[in-house]
Amino acid sequence: MSTAVEAIKAGADDYLLKPLSVDAILRALADEPHPPPPEDDDSLIPLNRVEWEHIQQALRATDGNISAAARLLGMHRRSLQRKLAKRPAPGETDHE
Prior knowledge:
The protein is an all-alpha fold. Helix content is 51%, strand content 0%. The protein contains five helices and no strands. The mean pLDDT is 78.
């Protein structure tokens, strides 16, 4: 999971989870390029929200299996449970 966070911090537009199919790669490549982020920092998505969405993606990929999602994310199951207990509020930002 730290690789996803690091990639997004470095400016990645997309992050594909393994195992990856050829169709998934082609879909990602066929998508329209993302517009550059606006100069206004207030419009950026908070990192804790990005992390939460990434966790939700892993849970969907494993049909809600916490242990399998934790393995997919490269973290301990209990650490994932703690993160799930801290769901970010819809308008929450990292600097509040």
